[in-house]
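Record 1 of the preview.
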Amino acid sequence: MTDTTTATTGSGPTPVTDRYGIPVTATKGDQFSSFDVNAFEVPSHKDEIWRFTPLKRLRGIHDGSNVTATGNLLVSVAERDGLTVESVGTDDKRIGEAGAPRDRVAAQAFTSVAEATVLTVATETVLDDPVYVTVDGPGEGELAYGHAQIRLEPFANATFVVDQRGGGTIAENVEFVVGDSAHLEVVLIQDWDDDALHLANHHLQVGRDATLTYTAVTFGGELVRIAPLTTFTAPGGTVNVNGLYYADDGQHIEHRLLVDHAVPNCTSRVLYKGALQGDASSNLPDAHTVWIGEVLIRAAAEGTDTYEMNRNLVLTDGARADSVPNLEIETGEIAGAGHASAVGRFDEEHLFYLMSRGIPEDTARRLVVRGFFGEVINRIGVPEVRERIAEAVELELQSSGI
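->
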């Protein structure tokens, strides 16, 4: 049994800690959230949600020592029939609808941002072509905050491709609000410059009989940390949370997700795949990826059907992957629940099979990696985006000499 104590710390939450002083919560869904940065303690590695993150590389954005914005995020999107693009204040009643910040940096972003971008697809509107959104960072040495919301009104159907690029330090909150019986596919591509630090809370809210397919693709950046939270507002919702990441020397890429099933008869599928390559003899930190997959099935969520999977392929020495899947189930009346994760090197049997048929080893290795990522890439519904990501993987393989 865990011994717990409570303590009051100013205006912040009342933490519950174990005998070693490490905070614990009753369930993963009870993680504290607030729009007030001062309600959060300064992160430390004693905090579960920060234990893998290299805090010394956060440039002071997490502890209050460097929080003054010196630049801006530039969001570009073309309006079209059925799509409304707005810049609003954070006092707009829609902002925060999908959830409040769940860590100090996200709260700092909410407190510091001047305006939010809201993209709305009107009720019963079907957008046949993808909406392309570009987000440019503030530039090397600069700090910027952001808040965006993509919302589909009931019975709408749309696909968004969000391209994040450039450099600098970026902290943001992004909301995806999917109305009843609406269908949203969103592909987020983090193709940052080598200097970029990107920290984000993503909030995925799915309505009755609605479907959301979310794919996060991470290639660039010095340190990228994305934390998506999925919630369902009514029965019948379906969410597919996918991810693809590729880390090189010096990169830290972290995806920390939670799917919170709190209502009956909803479905979730999670699939993330990552590859890492490093150089043990270099002066850079090892390539490091972190995947934390949390699925919570609350007592009221009867009929839930969920499965999550993470696979990591370590291509060279000088690379480290952490993979932690978790299921928390509070009712036995479910349709199904499961999880799986693995970290490994090339499958020698696959290599042997290909080489035995006359394929050179370097070509065989590339084919294995392409096949490894194919399951995620093929889930993207936009052909030109699939091609772009496949080409990016090929460039990464060429740079590794594989």
